[in-house]
Structures are given as structure tokens and as C-alpha cells.
Design brief:
- By secondary structure, the protein is α/β, with parallel strands linked by helices.
- The chain has two domains: 4-69 and 161-325, TIM Barrel, CATH 3.20.20.60; 76-152, PK beta-barrel domain-like (M1 Pyruvate Kinase, Domain 3, Beta Barrel).
- Helix content is 33%, strand content 23%.
- The protein has helices at residues 16-25, 39-56, 165-177, 191-196, 213-217, 219-225, 233-239, 245-259, 281-293, 302-305, 310-325, and strands spanning 4-8, 29-33, 61-65, 76-81, 86-90, 98-100, 115-118, 123-130, 134-141, 143-147, 151-152, 181-184, 205-210, 228-232, 262-266, 297-300.
- A hairpin with a 3-residue loop joins strand 8 (123-130) and strand 9.
- Helix 1 crosses helix 2 (39-56) and helix 6 packs across helix 8.
Length: 344
């Protein structure tokens, strides 16, 4: 098969039996998600994966996925946001009616009329005005906020560095582990990738994660600078209108094909298999569409990291890929082989 599979490692795939099953089912890459877990857990998981891959006789590359400058609420107590109500986002404010965020600098690019999303887009805020403490917002779509939930500014240019102190420390751990690939989150411009390269081991390659609206403005340069591009549809679908995501996916895959850069499609591909042993028909169609679009690699996230059926998810994805590639609809069979097609 031309299209490869990434399996994300996590609590559901920690045992030797499950890892062995995933390797035998056909993962080509194992992803270590550094947004979660402790360094020693990633080191132990990487060593176990390599041992099992050697025993099975399969080559599996390791991908380190850095957290990046994700903006979150900070230690938020259980808070109900009702439609029509107001809330202030602040870097250091406290008290009722105030939500602290982890990156106050993000508020510098916000203006009245801009939208702000909380909890992966589940809560929708409209900026009313800037205040001394932050920005005052009206709740358009309400919900509950608690703990450290994601904050997205789809209308604003966010002046944040491409690497955080955590990313730099984690990259050192990746060097020690010997990962072959490092994914940089929330890339906004090609220059962001150059900030990461000095922290990588010789020979390690960079995956640029396209998940912001800003990245689309510098897409060709990002594709040219990266070793691989990941279409991270979760955060991307919050940064741009959801209806545009399938079209942007096609544009990015085609641009990568033209450039000879490996393209990865990720997020919620078989999400229902976190709880169920079979995917929905819509998920099967989604995987098939990504293969027909020409993606080189497809990624499983929660399905193999925390799901109840990680081995079945890999098996199901491989079966869909094989069926689509064997059909007359698959247009990439006669294409000149991409030397990086076996690598993301």
C-alpha cells in the first residue's frame, strides 16, 4: 500500500500485547504526544515500541509531537457561561466574571467584533471592548468552562513565538530518545520551522502542523521548508469555518503532491472507535476521501491513544486504504513514486 498509518501511543496502547497488535496490524509510525504524559513515560514507551517492532520484524519510525504555544484558560473553577452574558479574558485578572489565559500577549491582537472560541470551539465569544485588565466579551454560544481549556483567536494574528520553553526542553528529550520526526504545532510561517531545527538531532526531520488560519497565508513556503506537512483538522476547524476544512485539505494535499512533500491527514478519522468496535460510514468515507485526495499518511489519535479498540482501529484503517487503492478511482497508482512516501 502507498498510504501509511500513524498510531498515537497512550494509555490504551501501553501494554506489550496492544503494541504488538498495532505493529502487526500495520502502523508505519508511532506518535509520542508531548502535550500529555511525563518525559519518562515517553522514553519508556519509545523503548518498548522499538523492542516490539524488532521482535515482529517491522520498521516503525517515532514521531515526537511538540505541544507548541497552545493558549489555554488557567486553573479555571467550574464556570457556566450563559448566552448573552459577559466575561472578561485577562492575563492576570481574578474574581467572578474573569477568565485567566496562559498567554496574555495573545490579547494584543484582539479588537471589538473579533470572535474567540473556548473548548475547541464549543463556546463562542464576541469581543466588545478592550479594558485595562483584558478584553470584555459577550457570550454568543454558551457552555461550561473548567480547568485548562483551549482558547482560539480565529479573527486575530497572534504574536507568539513558535517554540515555548517546554517545547525546547521536550526537543532535548526527543534527541535522547532518538526520534526520527518532530512535529511543530501551530506553525504560522515557514520561518517557524527554522527556529526548531537547531534543537533537533542530525537527520531528524520536521513535520509542519497546519492548524491556524495564518499558516494558510504562507502555505507554499511552509510546504517547501518542511520535510512533511500535517493537516491537523481539529484546531484548523476552529480557526477557519468548518465547511472550508475539506476544501483546504484537498488544496494542501495537492500542493504537497506537486512539491514532492509528504502530506499527513489527521484528527477524528475513526473517532467513534474510541468507544465502538466499528467506525461510522461517514468516518469510512472520510478516510477514503483522504486516500483519494492523495494523502501519503493518515493518523489515528484518540483511537489508539485512549480508545477501547486500538488494534481494530489500525486494522480498519488499513482495510479502507487497501480497498480504495485497489479501486479504479485511485488516481495515484501510476504517479512517479515519492521517495518520502514511506515516511511522513
Amino acid at each position: 500500500m502507498q498510504t501509511r498509518v500513524i498510531g498515537t501511543l497512550g494509555p490504551a496502547s501501553r501494554s506489550d500485547a496492544v503494541l504488538r497488535g498495532m505493529v502487526r496490524a500495520g502502523i508505519s509510525f508511532a506518535r509520542l504526544n508531548f502535550s500529555h504524559g511525563r518525559p519518562e513515560e515517553h522514553e519508556e514507551m519509545a523503548a518498548r515500541l522499538r523492542r516490539i517492532a524488532d521482535e515482529v520484524g517491522c520498521a516503525v519510525d517515532l514521531i515526537q509531537d511538540l505541544q507548541g504555544p497552545k493558549i489555554r484558560t488557567v486553573n479555571t473553577p467550574y464556570t457556566l457561561l450563559s448566552p448573552g452574558g459577559e466575561i472578561v479574558l485577562s492575563g492576570d485578572g481574578q474574581g467572578a466574571g474573569v477568565l485567566r489565559i496562559s498567554e496574555p500577549a495573545a490579547l494584543a491582537g484582539v479588537a471589538p467584533g473579533h470572535r474567540i472560541y473556548l473548548d475547541d470551539g464549543m463556546i463562542d465569544l464576541e469581543v466588545l471592548e478592550r479594558t485595562e485588565d483584558g478584553v470584555r466579551c459577550r457570550v454568543v454560544i454558551g457552555g461550561t468552562v473548567e480547568g485548562n481549556q483551549g482558547v482560539v483567536f480565529p479573527s486575530s494574528q497572534i504574536p507568539l513565538p513558535p517554540l515555548t520553553a517546554k517545547d525546547i526542553a521536550d526537543a532535548r528529550i526527543g534527541r535522547e530518545i532518538g526520534v526520527q520526526w518532530v512535529a511543530l504545532s501551530f506553525v504560522q510561517r515557514a520561518l517557524d520551522l527554522e527556529a526548531l531545527r537547531p534543537h533537533l538531532a542530525p537527520g531528524a526531520r520536521i513535520i509542519a502542523k497546519v492548524e491556524t488560519a495564518g499558516a494558510l497565508h504562507d502555505l507554499e513556503a511552509i510546504i517547501a521548508a518542511a520535510d512533511a506537512v500535517m493537516i491537523a483538522r481539529g484546531d484548523l476547524g476552529v480557526s477557519i469555518p468548518r465547511a472550508r476544512v475539506p476544501l483546504v485539505q484537498k488544496d494542501i494535499v495537492l500542493a504537497c503532491r506537486r512539491r514532492g512533500t509528504t502530506c499527513i491527514v489527521a484528527t477524528e478519522m475513526l473517532l467513534s472507535m474510541v468507544l465502538h468496535p466499528h467506525p461510522t460510514r461517514a468516518e469510512v468515507a472520510d478516510v477514503a476521501t483522504a486516500v483519494l485526495d492523495g494523502a501519503h499518511v493518515l493518523m489515528l489519535s484518540e483511537e489508539t491513544a485512549i480508545g477501547a479498540y486500538p488494534i481494530q482501529a489500525v486494522t480498519e484503517m488499513r482495510e479502507i486504504i487497501a480497498t480504495v487503492e485497489a479501486s479504479s478511482y485511485y488516481p495515484w497508482r501510476a504517479a512517479v513514486p515519492n521517495p518520502e512516501a514511506d515516511k511522513p
